[in-house]
Amino acid sequence: MKRISTVLLAFLFGLCGSPASAQEAAPAWQPNPEHSVVLEEIVSAIGPSALENINNAEQVFCYQITNRPENYTGYTIDGMAIVGFCGIINNELKTMITSELFMNPDNIVFDVTENCIIRPKVMLRFVRGVDFTDVLLSSPCHAFAIFYGGKVNAFNAKPAAQIIDALINPLIKGKVDFASPALFNQLLPIGVAQTEEQKQLLNKKNEPIRNWIKAQEEEENNAPKGWNKLKMKK
Which DSSP category does 168 fall into? Predict the structure, then answer.
């Protein structure tokens, strides 16, 4: 468990902008081939659509959250107040999170509740297209909850306490003020595409729709003319 926490911290140091040497000093994490599918208890609880977003997320956004104060009028996510934006989770860390929290039976206790109150700390939004599944991480009552389609399922993750703390603490430390992408007409929660890498990503993502529009225009231009678009005999 200690080795896993160290590697998690190394990935998070990179996410929060710490020196690359911090990542190089940590041992490489490799997924356990025995933990390659989401546990059946989780699958049956959250359903296939929520699971699809987790397994095939195109981006995973991180938000620091807290219980919504009385008379709060700020931004919320799943009814909780957004305290800050803590980054975009990279693919390596995403794989680690799904493997350790959703696929490792040693890190979850089913059908047992702890004598503690879930304290929302971080929300991870797994986005696929326009659909998304939210995963809340709680500490020191170590648990995670999955939100989808107006439903929430909470899971006891006490055995994964070190993993959850290794995730939460650096993410919260590296958070920035949340800026509404809708208010500023931004493409990403942290702003418009500002780097060549982001521009290339957006161009790549837009290729299918561009091709579809081009094909549709060509089809319309070559469509038969006449009543009901039937080809008329000459």
Answer: H
